[in-house]
Automatic annotation (TrEMBL):
EC number(s) per entry: 3.1.3.48
Record's protein name: Tyrosine-protein phosphatase
GO molecular function: protein tyrosine phosphatase activity
Domain Tyrosine specific protein phosphatases, residue spans: 130-172
């Protein structure tokens, strides 16, 4: 794949699609940059135009790792020729909790929704580590070295944490990891008319990302698991040998 600016990858039907190596500062162990054109992150791929599909075909993607829940996948299914789909289901919870609060007559304030998002990120770290372990197993699969994309619905929370874990495992500094995470606020286009029962200021918390969300996940890793150096091998299966293999595959030669 040519070394082109990230803007060259912009798709009409997946606003948050991007090369994980394209964010500034994505330099890993030993000052080695990430290889371009190997790992992509995205929102869901059910709304792609024909031009989008042609652009993805040109990238040579062979695998799509889908973090969406069962109903989400059924409601927005897609098919890309030559791309093998793998379901790594993490069921959504925040919208359902918000709707339950509305139904019970409780007001949805910005602090309330922010708290739900913090709960989500702690839950992703503590309860969904098996899905992220599956992600790394795909990244390290020696039988299939084709470029891949991982995604959820908006490509911001489940996908955002997955991207952060990949970058951290490759030795990318936390400020660069945060930069990649926050790019969602510049890229993702959501429909403002969705969920009219939820106040707009609360929806803006839901449909955007904040540093505090990622900080909550990293705090959970430190507090509940003894830090990243323990979380990676104990919960994600990333032994020292696996980390070396990950770096060899996804970092350019120094």
């Amino acid at each position: 794949m040519p070394d082109t600016p990230d803007d060259a990858l912009r798709l009409s039907g997946a606003s948050n699609f991007r090369d994980l190596a394209a964010s500034p500062g994505t330099v890993g162990h030993g000052g080695r940059p990430l290889r371009r054109g190997q790992v992509f992150r995205s929102d869901h791929l059910a709304g792609l135009t024909e031009a989008d599909r042609a652009a993805i075909a040109a990238l040579g993607l062979g695998r799509a790792l889908d973090f969406r829940g069962v109903a989400e996948r059924a409601a927005a299914a897609y098919d890309l020729p030559g791309v093998t789909q793998h379901a790594l289901s993490i069921e959504p919870t925040v919208v359902q909790h918000m709707q339950a609060l509305v139904a019970s007559g409780q007001a949805l304030t910005v602090p309330t929704v922010t708290g739900l998002m913090h709960d989500l990120y702690r839950g992703l770290v503590n309860d969904q580590s098996h899905r992220f372990a599956e992600l790394f197993a795909h990244l390290l699969d020696e039988a299939d070295t084709r470029p891949l994309v991982f995604h959820c619905t908006a490509g911001k929370d489940r996908t955002g944490l997955a991207a952060a874990l990949i970058l951290l495992a490759l030795g990318v500094p936390r400020d660069a990891v945060l930069h990649d995470y926050l790019l969602t606020n510049e890229r993702y286009s959501f429909m403002p008319g969705e969920h009219p029962e939820i106040p707009r200021d609360a929806l803006m918390v839901l449909w955007r990302v904040q540093q505090g969300f990622l900080d909550e996940a990293l705090l959970a890793i430190d507090r509940d698991h003894g830090g990243l150096d323990r979380y990676l091998p104990q919960r994600l299966g990333l032994t020292p040998a696996a980390l070396q293999a990950l770096a060899a595959r996804y970092l350019a030669e120094g």
